[in-house]
Specification:
Number of domains: 3
CATH class of the largest domain: Mainly Beta
Helix content: under 10%
Largest sheet: 8 strands, mixed
Number of helices: 1
Radius of gyration: 21 Å
Length: 353
Amino acid sequence: MKRVFYVLANLSWICAASWAQDTLRVSDEIAPPGGVAQIKIMQTIPDPISGGRFAFDAGMDFIGLAIFDPAGTAAGVATEGSRMSVSFTSTGSTLGTLPDYPIVTIAVRVPADAPKGKVYPIALDGLQTALADLSRNTVPLELKAGSITVGGTLNVSDVQPGSGFQTAGTVIRVFGSGFNADTRIRLKDGPLTTPTLMSSTEIDLTLNQDAKMDGAWVEVRNKTERVNYFSYMRGQLDPTSSDPWKYPLLTAIEPIFPTAQVTTATVPASLYGLALQNPNLNPATVTFGWAPCSPKSRCKGFLTLQPGSKLVRSLLDLPGFVANSNGTITSDIPIQVLGLATGAQTVTPLILQ
């Protein structure tokens, strides 16, 4: 089934344009049948942005999306229905400032029965595409289309761990296809690594130095092919997340976490839900406290968030929750936290501090 992908922001506050025209382009990708193509949306003129929206029809299954912000202060929410929609926000001033790096990547699965040589054109919808600068002005845009061509054998489908601060000696597992003794791999713009070919579908990289894996540029090549992949965490949903029958609006969303990690955060009583993600290699113990608290309420509770997992819950399902009370989150190791607000049958992201 063909799907239309949207990346949206609430841009009703945008003022008159202040920038010279920028170009927003979609990358050209090559991936084998059944492989993963990571579509990259890039500005040709690096400038900070505070929001934006994108729309296009990829004609294949969506499996993951990431927003790349050097400061880790951008986050969003994706909703999949008749279309893929994503709202995102940045509270900093660094989103869009890295030359040669995308502002958004969308990973899609190429159909296993797609014939080699088939081209999937990807053109941004001009009516559904916009960017806003830090002063909330619209950015004049020229749009350039890209494509996914079915072919080749070399492919990167995932990087684990793909997020978080990883220390020297950590093994980074790169999954894909077409790997062999002639395959060369590196973290471009990153630390030196020691690669080990595990199989035709996995190469392990041992970090020789500490590294931040959020948005790490993984370059894989052989004599005739080259693949560029920007890492992110594709967390596995914790089975204790809220019941989809009780909270269909909440459980229909896919949180796009800020890459910045925290050990404490305040949860406003007005929130609808909360999303947590653990990019670490060890479990996180997360403690909740609620105030004001009546004598008849527990007011406190905790949960364990497993490595590489994400949790999405209604506030009502959080440990010790007290109605109309603000909450405090404390984690024994840094995790990623995202608030979820609702309005007009939509879920919007809120970065918590």
